[in-house]
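Task card 7
Instruction: Convert sequence to structure tokens.
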Amino acid sequence: MPVPRPDISIIGIHGKTPRIHDSAFVAPGCRIIGDVEIGPDASIWYNCVLRGDVSRIVIGARSNVQDGTVIHCDGAMPGAPDGFPTLIGDDVLIGHMAMIHGTVIADRGFVGFAAQTMNGCVIEADGMLAAGALLAPGKRIPSRQLWSGRPAAFMRDLDDRMLAGLQLGVAHYVENARHHAAALAETGDGEA
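Output:
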């Protein structure tokens, strides 16, 4: 786990403390609370909140959570004895100001700017939720489909070129996180 820094909050609660891989980037202004796991080369950008106080949150390898995003989960409740953890796979792109709640996003999934997901949602591998969309509780986006709207509905299938472009975005965020970490270390506002 990275050395504690005054510009981010890493807070344990209910006996659970965030676990952050040494290679992950966590930008200033972030609040990471409770049962949260952040994988290798993942990046959590400026002013995000990941609150794992009632269930768990997992961010997979090389996934990025862009600026201002809020991620939460839900604990056990009638009809859902295991609650609704938020489980994000590897190589996932989550756009700026998204709100992810009690959702599973499989490897290479995508959530656009200011999109919202609710309890019980699933975005399968290579599935995409468009910018500004609202995925209603329990909805599932199948692999290689784009859903859009409020509430979100199927829009079209995704081709190989679109999916390859998303993976270029993943690689960009891994590299960009390294540059930001170095810049913060140079200014004394963070660590390398």
